[in-house]
Amino acid sequence: MVIFRRPESRLLSFSELFIINNAKASFWLYHRYLSNLTSTFNNMKVLSDLIAVILFFLTYTFTKNIVWATAVALVIGVLQASFTWVKHKKLDTMQWISLVLIVVFGGATIVLRDARFIMWKPTLLFWFGALALGISHALNKNGLKAMMGKELKLSDDIWRKLTWAWIAFLIFMGTVNLAVAYTFSEAQWVNYKLFGSTGLMIVFFIGQGLYLSRHLPQEN
């Protein structure tokens, strides 16, 4: 059984919010009501992440220059991290990893004018996420529960299944990104980054929300 509780005020990641919001959407479809809406600030965080991907895509579309598009992504990544630091006085582990990856690999693409570096960035981020969840599971700690336990009340068995689903999905996403990067053209990879990758994530999140809905209390 899953019970939604009012979360404490904190900044949620894009992935966390999609899990929560899609679970709530499924809850509405099955039970016709929602509780504890996500805060406006958290919704703005999701929007800012989407805007970053869209601006990367638009910059490349208009300039046909991966260096310019990468420069835009790097600036946005640094600004997002800076805003989070000013607002919360800290960055979580994955936020630090994301910042380092965009600075190092984005910077390498800009300096060396080699698109392969920025193409590797999403894969490494996905795989680092999978590794982090795998390590936490091996240490008998649940990374997803630690991140979202205040928003979702689930049994340990459900948390374990969600963790393995996320590990498999993140490994899959990282692998597909490389397959597209090395099989198709640079322009096709940019299109995949916005439409393909985002589409796959949305499908996964909706499927996860539907799975969670099976464990919600039934109406009388």
From TrEMBL:
GO terms for cellular component: plasma membrane. It is a multi-pass membrane protein. The chain crosses the membrane at residues 93-112, 124-141, 162-182, 194-212. It is found in: Cell inner membrane. InterPro entries: YciB (IPR006008). Keywords: Cell inner membrane, Cell membrane, Membrane, Transmembrane, Transmembrane helix. Plays a role in cell envelope biogenesis, maintenance of cell envelope integrity and membrane homeostasis. Belongs to the YciB family. This is Inner membrane-spanning protein YciB. The gene is ispZ.
